[in-house]
Target: FAD-binding oxidoreductase
Amino acid sequence: MTDPRIGSLQQAVPALVLKTAADDLVHYGRDWTRRWAPAPLAIALPGDAGEVQAVVRWARAHGVAIVPSGGRTGLSGGAVAAHGELVLSLERMRRVLGFDAVDRTLTVQAGITLEATQSAAGEQGLAYPVDFAARGSCSIGGNIATNAGGIRVLRYGNTREWVAGLKLVTGHGDLLDLNRGLVKNSSGYDLRHLVIGSEGTLGVVVEATLRLADPPPETSVMLLALPSFESLMQVFAELRSRLELEAFEFFTARALHHVLAGGAQAPFAERHPFYVLAEFASGGDAREVAVLAAFEHCTTRGWVGDGVISQSRDQAAQLWRLREGITESLAPHAPYKHDVSVRVSAMPAFLADAQALLAREYPEFDVVWFGHVGDGNLHINVLRPAQMDADAFAARCGQVTALLAATLQKHGGSISAEHGIGLAKKDYLASTRSPEEIAIMAGIKRVLDPAGIMNPGKIFDAP
Ligand code: MLT
Ligand code: ZN
Model:
């Protein structure tokens, strides 16, 4: 029997598209984590900001929790609806609303994908430089909700740097127009930045005005094989001082093993413990000389065991697939994901402690390291041993995460660098944020969402 609240919602917002079929509830009720069983009440697909406001007002009046939903490519359970929540999908709100050549901004509805945003910027001869592998599915609203980072943070920064303004429907159902694209605005608290990274707990982002960058330079990609993490840090310092780096990513032999098992082509004849993928501005004799000099410098010091430099766009894309294909290659193993960060200068010391900890705690597990080493962001994926049941695995990983969180605390790091806290890392928030900070966050939530209907249970349990 259909829940009577669905009829009531349809009556309150007649133009609203509502989905309640069993396969839709599963599809929209989960994200890429696959850890929580989806169980939403229904899926609401508004067509504009006014309808979003009407849905939120209805939900507040009826005490129904809302889970804002973009591409659901998140890796922390932030978009999971497992407790009868109404999923509010922005899927029908994907339009580009305007481009301003003087301001160099693009205004979009929040449901647009990252890839469509990048294309729209490209059509204007400019670029939206935030980038990562989920670009074809993830939405700008979701990127804003998690302050998404990705593969070009080293050069361009996180999503936060590119949001010139946003519109938010609060838990009251009010529509806030925050910062309106201004470059300079010293008129009090910047509420826009409060919303960025708030994981849908303060409201629903419905629109964003994004800054655009100059089109990226011509680039080449270098894949290097390295004997140790120490040499990786030396190579990073060297390349950063000699080249104009666009990205500096790393992965281990285990990560490469899984990508190759998925059909990718091996880059080198021999296996090496670590690999670095560096993308850098190329073209012109001076740059070519600098690249070769940097390569030679690293090789003669024994920091690099082997290396290859792309000679075409196709080759560059092929090399990138070795890094970008890691998440997909691990997905069938339902990995437990860590997404941690420390200051880049603290990386070697943190890594030594973390490696010792994980080797001790997970001696029999396949632990895969990779990430955005130039940003101090490491992804550590732990694969479930075939003979271990899912609950026992989750419990074991939970215990180890508590130890890892303590190690991070010692090194002043964060339990989530770019994926968000969501449900997955909620129990460890206190390793990264002080009790005073968490109390302030809860207080801010009460102001913007007094009924506690916006993505409840994500980041923290509001009192
Ligand atoms: C990536 O950088 O590929 C993703 O953020 C990481 C992951 O799958 O853990
Ligand atoms: Zn990442």
